[in-house]
Amino acid sequence: MSKFCRRIHFYTNLLIMKTILLPTDFSKASEKAMEYAILIAQRNNARIVVAHAYLLPVFSSILAPSVMDCMIEEVVQKTDSKLISICKKISSHFSDSGKQLECEYVSAYSVPETEIKNVAHLKKPDLIIMGTNSRDNLQAFLRSTTSRIIDTVSFPLLIVHENTIVAPIEKIHMAIENITKDAVEASQLINLASSFKASITLLHVKPNNKVNESKGNFLFADFIKNFIDYSSIKLKTCISNNVEEGLKTSLSEDSSDLLVLIKYSRKWLDELFHKSIIRAFIKKGDLPILILHRT
């Protein structure tokens, strides 16, 4: 395969933001996710689909059908009112080109995880943006909708904490394992990065006994020259025997605005390790996390 063909192949998965799926449970975390959805939609002329799932109280199953119908109608009216309000707020914003943001909502009697997967399958979003507030309790996070969506949905997923300070994305950091193989995933970020005029830093954590930074930089420079047409991208090697700590140190040094992590589908032990890294950053920090799936 020629270098030209490989370049085209790498760029087929560019994150071109035309449709953003925004699940909401009307929480503070969901409001922060909405702010990011607006921010990204403004830069990319994207439309936003707001999704909500509702369930009735457990005791409702013992009620008469007529009472159940009334309860469902009341819940639908309340949720629709909130969703319409969210759509109006989103539509009050304009893209950088002056176009009013487009927004629609979907609501269903369903489990949140199921509804998100159904809407994603129907709308084919380029990005899903979700809020999370479960970072204080690992078990709570493992039971959360966010955790289950990470494991079951293959669309790019941006996770926003309720305490995240929403700001334009100027510095994007992406954790990679292999300089020449994983750097290919960076090509997906070019459209997002360019819309914010953001820099991309690929973070490569290496243990002390495997330091050969000059070789890594040479391979990276050759790769960039041949396959990625974006000037504001660089490689940073982090020396640490602990991947999580190495990444945290680098992110703190560089004042990152967005961390990109790759979720791999491979041997269960490797997959378990990567899940733990992803969950550690989601649970312990306020930095937005963009998860890309790779088979």
UniProtKB/TrEMBL annotation:
Domain UspA: 17-161
Domain of life: Bacteria
InterPro entries: Universal_stress_UspA, UspA
UniProt record similarity statement: Belongs to the universal stress protein A family.
Name recorded for this polypeptide: UspA domain-containing protein
